Amino acid sequence: MNKAIIRVVCVVVAMVLSGGAAAQGTGSTQTTQKTLASTIDVYVFPTKGQVATQQSTDEADCYNWAVQNTGNDPFSLTKQADQQAMQTEQQKQQAAQVGKGSGARGAVGGAAAGALIGEIASNNPGRGAAWGAAIGGIAARRRGRQAQGQATQQVEQQGQQAQAATAEQIENFKKAFSVCLEAKDYLVKF
């Protein structure tokens, strides 16, 4: 087959794939499909006149190369980040339960201690129990709120660390992907 015919076929295929043939003569706006690179927020421009089909092939090749060389697939990492965010929210809800009921437990313990002290000090265990229950309940609730705050803070820090690690893996993938495309004469930004 003649090289000129092959070029024409490639141009026609590229136009059809990009929607150019469908929009021609209709006066409607042209819709283009997102490229593989643009779906992961990497923007690629052909510097040597590569046609759209060649760019798609090169992007697919570089995508596979970057996955093999980094061990990371950005689509899997994005799903992983979403799951991590959901898990962090669930753990925060569980952390909110830390310390629940501590006021009642503290009041019971305080009442017992207060009754004993009231009996010894003033021969009035009921009054000592009442004071002990109040003091024990207040102290226990304070400790419960502190434990709840610490648990929530720890969960948030772990969630942020997991999200940062995933973002770093995606960033490393984008670097490898970009290097490959630049070696194939594309201008790449992310």
Helix content: over 70%
Biggest beta sheet attributes: 2 strands, antiparallel
Structural class: mainly alpha
- CA gyration radius, whole angstroms: 33 Å
Arithmetic mean of pLDDT = 78
Give a structural overview.
A two-stranded antiparallel sheet has the order 1-2. Residues about 1-30 have low confidence and may be disordered. It has helices spanning about 5-20, 20-25, 35-40, 50-70, 75-95, 100-120, 125-185, and strands at about 45, 185-190. Helix 4 (about 50-70) crosses helix 7 and helix 6 packs antiparallel against helix 7. It contains seven helices and two strands, in the order H-H-H-E-H-H-H-H-E. It is mostly helical and about 190 residues long. The protein has two domains: about 1-35; about 35-190, no CATH class.
Q: What is the compact description of this entry?
A:
With 190 residues, the protein is mainly alpha-helical. It has helices spanning 3-18, 20-23, 36-39, 52-70, 74-96, 102-122, 125-183, and strands spanning 43-46, 186-189.
Characteristics:
two-stranded antiparallel ribbon; disordered N terminus; 4% strand; 2 strands; 190 residues; mainly alpha
Map the helices and strands:
Elements: H1 3-18, H2 20-23, H3 36-39, E1 43-46, H4 52-70, H5 74-96, H6 102-122, H7 125-183, E2 186-189
Antiparallel strand pairs: 1-2
Helix pairs in contact: 4-7, 5-7, 6-7
